Structure formats: structure tokens, C-alpha cells
């Protein structure tokens, strides 16, 4: 039976409740894996209750300093912080759409022969409908004189996309746990780091902040371990980190600020078992049980197997 610490519980639960397959959230774009509220979430009649629960859950993670699996879009963080959105915020979620609006702003659309109206098409689960940006917008043509209003309205639409009810439900749950004054001095980027941590792994920092038990820094198995870490890509390093600590995220202060179940706890490698054993981890203590393997190839094979089976395998 596995015993997950609070840190891992928050991380794994967030992986489930934020999963786009449940239609509550969706990716911000085809190449942007930040999450935003899915306008089609109303397909679930209880979706507002779910958003309120998720709001509470995210606030609890933030309050207790626990990381979540996937981050949100920059405009969504600004909504959590009750900060106004601007045209520039579009660039982070839809650069193509943003650039098209900038082009309209900088060029004479009448000379170019563009014919646009104060309305947009929206596609929800394959059903295309027309949304008017202002009353009778489908019959009001965009001109040089009113294009600034059009840019403002279409940007507001693209940033909200009719998810006001869902956003309000999320914020209601969030603010029940964390009132706005708790976050008044933070900006969106700082909030993202608080919730998701840092993803780029600094190998020098990792080595400098690691401790050893029954191994020495000069032990050949330790040398092989760091050789392995240097050879693998950042994705596998994150999976190794998750295998040992229960999360693939790092605190703002890096490895030196890793937390265990009882407070600060550095990454630890301990000699445990025999050479034919598989590695094990103790996520509540950030500890890797590394058997005394006889060759680099053997250590690499066993560790790769471990990180490919991160969820559950060899974890306590």
C-alpha cells in the first residue's frame, strides 16, 4: 500500500481535476499547454459546482505551498488576482490573433479593402454561432473611425469567450479560502511560480544541494548517478525528480529549498539493498534508495525503468 505525502496528493489530484478530457479546462492553443476555462464546460450540468471546488482546491494548494501539475494561462492568473486585462495579454495565449489586431491597428483597413463587422463566429463542440460584439454588431461595419472600439471589444471577447459564470464560480471558491488581500502584492508571473514552481533544472544547484547516506560524494555509484542525470534530457530529469520527491516542480529557491513532510529536506541518495534490487524512493523525505550497482550500464537501466514507472512504482 502506498502512502502519499500531502505534496504528492495535491500534485496528483491536480493532474486529474485539471485534465482537459473532462471538458472543464482546455489548452490555450495548439502549441500552448497552459490551461484556460473551456467554453463548452456547460455540457456538464454540474460544471459550476466543479469550478467552485477547483477554486477552493487551488487556493488550498497555494496556502499550503504545494505545487500543482499544470499551470494556467497568464490572463487567468490575472483574473485570480483581480487585475485588469489588456490587449497585450492576448499575445501569451494566441499570438496569431494578437498580431492580426496589431496589424489592423497600424494599417488603414479601408485602403486595404477589408470588410469586417462588429461580430465574430464561435465554435462550441462543432456548433458555430455568431456573437455580436455590440448591439446589432453584425450590421455595423468596422471603419478607420471605429476600429479602436472593435479591437477593444474583440480582444475582450477573445480573453473571456463567454466563460464569465465559470470564472465567477472558480473565484468564489478560491476567495473562500484566500481573500484577495492575501495576494494583493503579487503579479501573475509570481503567482504562477508559487503554484507551479520552476521547471528548468539547474544541475549545479542539484549536486550542490544533495546529501548522501552510506555513500560518499566520491563513491563510484554517485559519480555514475550524476553522469546519468547529465546525459538525460530535461523531461527525464523532471520525471526523476518526481519519482524521488513526488513532484517535478522546484521551489523558487531551487533544490536548497526542497521541503519534506516535516519541513526543509534536501535531496538525499542513500545506499540501500543489493545490486539486483530496483531503486526505491521516499517522497515524504526526498530520498532515493540507490542499490550499490556494479556498473554504469546497470544503474542507468534500473533508473530509467524507475522513472518510466513514476506513478506508484517503488514509492513510499
TrEMBL record:
Pfam families for the chain: HECT (PF00632)
Any one GO molecular-function label of the UniProt entry: ubiquitin protein ligase activity
EC number assigned by the record: 2.3.2.26
Gene3D superfamilies (UniProt xref): Hect, E3 ligase catalytic domain, Hect, E3 ligase catalytic domains
GO cellular component: cytoplasm
Catalytic-site annotation from UniProt: 284 (glycyl thioester intermediate)
Pathway: Protein modification; protein ubiquitination
Catalytic activity, reaction form: S-ubiquitinyl-[E2 ubiquitin-conjugating enzyme]-L-cysteine + [acceptor protein]-L-lysine = [E2 ubiquitin-conjugating enzyme]-L-cysteine + N(6)-ubiquitinyl-[acceptor protein]-L-lysine
Keywords: Repeat, Transferase, Ubl conjugation pathway
Superkingdom assignment: Eukaryota
InterPro entries associated with the record: E3_ubiq-protein_ligase, HECT_dom, Hect_E3_ubiquitin_ligase
Chain ranges of the HECT domain: 7-316
GO biological process: proteasome-mediated ubiquitin-dependent protein catabolic process; protein K29-linked ubiquitination; protein K48-linked ubiquitination; protein K63-linked ubiquitination
The protein, known as: HECT-type E3 ubiquitin transferase
Gene source species: Sinocyclocheilus grahami (Dianchi golden-line fish)
Amino acid at each position: 500500500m502506498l502512502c502519499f505525502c500531502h505534496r504528492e496528493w495535491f500534485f496528483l489530484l491536480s493532474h486529474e481535476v485539471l485534465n482537459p478530457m473532462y471538458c472543464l479546462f482546455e489548452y490555450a492553443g495548439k502549441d500552448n499547454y497552459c490551461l484556460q476555462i473551456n467554453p463548452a464546460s456547460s455540457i456538464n450540468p454540474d460544471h459550476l459546482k466543479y469550478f467552485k471546488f477547483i477554486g477552493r482546491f487551488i487556493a488550498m494548494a497555494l496556502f499550503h505551498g504545494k505545487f500543482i501539475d499544470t499551470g494556467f494561462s497568464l490572463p487567468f492568473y490575472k483574473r485570480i488576482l483581480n487585475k485588469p486585462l489588456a490587449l497585450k495579454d492576448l499575445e501569451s495565449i494566441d499570438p496569431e490573433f494578437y498580431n492580426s489586431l496589431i496589424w489592423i491597428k497600424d494599417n488603414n483597413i479601408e485602403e486595404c479593402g477589408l470588410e469586417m463587422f462588429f461580430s465574430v463566429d464561435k465554435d462550441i463542440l462543432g456548433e458555430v454561432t455568431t456573437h455580436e460584439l455590440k448591439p446589432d454588431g453584425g450590421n455595423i461595419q468596422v471603419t478607420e473611425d471605429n476600429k479602436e472600439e472593435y479591437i477593444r471589444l474583440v480582444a475582450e471577447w477573445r480573453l473571456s469567450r463567454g466563460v464569465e459564470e465559470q470564472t465567477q464560480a472558480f473565484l468564489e471558491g478560491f476567495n473562500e479560502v484566500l481573500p484577495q488581500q492575501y495576494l494583493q502584492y503579487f503579479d501573475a508571473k509570481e503567482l504562477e511560480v508559487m503554484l507551479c514552481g520552476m521547471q528548468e533544472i539547474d544541475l549545479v544547484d542539484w549536486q550542490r544541494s544533495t546529501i548522501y547516506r552510506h555513500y560518499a560524494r566520491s563513491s563510484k555509484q554517485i559519480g555514475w548517478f550524476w553522469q546519468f542525470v547529465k546525459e538525460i534530457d530535461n523531461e527525464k530529469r523532471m520525471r526523476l525528480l518526481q519519482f524521488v520527491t513526488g513532484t517535478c516542480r522546484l521551489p523558487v529557491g531551487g533544490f536548497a529549498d526542497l521541503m519534506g513532510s516535516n519541513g526543509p529536506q534536501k535531496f538525499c541518495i542513500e545506499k540501500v539493498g543489493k545490486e539486483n534490487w530496483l531503486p526505491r524512493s521516499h517522497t515524504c523525505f526526498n530520498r532515493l534508495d540507490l542499490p550499490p550497482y556494479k556498473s554504469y550500464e546497470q544503474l542507468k537501466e534500473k533508473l530509467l525503468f524507475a522513472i518510466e514507472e513514476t506513478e506508484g512504482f517503488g514509492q513510499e
